[in-house]
Amino acid sequence: MECLEQLLKVIVISELRYVEGAINTKAPLMRIFMEQCAIERSNFILNVWHVALKQNQKTTLSDLYNWHNQLYGKDYLHMQIGLNLNIDVLDRKALEICRFMLQMNLPDELTAILTEQSIKIETSLLALVQIRSLSEN
Question: Would the pTM count as exceeding 0.85?
Answer without folding.
Answer: no
